[in-house]
């Protein structure tokens, strides 16, 4: 067992990262927070619309977009890869909607058809042009968040701001939060009742495609740090955890951001202890937070619901007469 689980050293796991390696771990923590917060904010609306797996579809379908962008531009620069992946993500949402609305196929089946087909096309392109496309499997599957501090710093004059991926993800998270605040009513109404949205003059279709486009931007931006497999967890876990703690959407959104911050910090410490992938450790800690909320939530937690059942069983039925001694 000692060989399976490394020995725990409090100094090495919790103190050293913020005293000896602050310059590196602060950027990793910020990157993890920006990814989890932006994915969590968007993910709340996906959960409300019962479209949680769309994020998974987009994260898989960006593979052909990356390959095609490289083949057309013959460049591996970040803007080229970003545009190709974003185009593939938006195309995925369009294909899902067309299949769902123009046929009798249900939405979950349409999601499976779209992402599996596009992912297969990406695999074919990579296999055909493997000598031209250098794709890092570790980056695609697990992300490279630990390498974020090694990225070039963005310079404004003589001032160094932050590593490029952190700054880009921070801007995406900020824009996501601003758009949710501006279009809060439209997103709320169209997510719960598209018919009511139409009666209020809100174009539910436009709001849907706007949300899917923003989802594509978030997924593509997060792809570099958390990978295709793990990004779906960041889209679901914060919102699912927050929904167990509150039924009010503003509170759920704020709790999602808090979940992102906690899972990012705790994931860093877990990865240092176990010497494993930081992105995966962040997701595991996000799941731990979900389990805690599931167990201890006052209203929807397992303990709270068990106590409510005990109270109902002990309480007399309505209209019953209780006689004293």
Structural features, described:
The chain has 325 residues and is mainly α. It has a single domain (10-148, 161-309), classed as ABC transporter involved in vitamin B12 uptake, BtuC (Orthogonal Bundle). It has 13 helices and 2 strands, in the order H-H-H-H-H-H-E-E-H-H-H-H-H-H-H. It has helices at residues 10-19, 22-48, 53-73, 78-102, 107-128, 137-142, 164-182, 184-192, 194-199, 204-245, 249-274, 278-296, 302-314, and strands at residues 153-156, 159-163. Strands 1-2 form a two-stranded antiparallel sheet. A hairpin with a 2-residue loop joins strand 1 (153-156) and strand 2 (159-163). Helix 2 (22-48) packs across helix 10 and helix 8 crosses helix 10. The chain starts with 9 loop residues before the first helix and ends in an 11-residue tail after the last helix.
Write the layout of secondary structure elements.
Blueprint: H1 10-19, H2 22-48, H3 53-73, H4 78-102, H5 107-128, H6 137-142, E1 153-156, E2 159-163, H7 164-182, H8 184-192, H9 194-199, H10 204-245, H11 249-274, H12 278-296, H13 302-314
Helix pairs in contact: 1-2, 1-11, 2-7, 2-10, 2-11, 3-4, 3-5, 3-10, 4-5, 4-10, 7-10, 8-10, 10-11, 10-12, 11-12
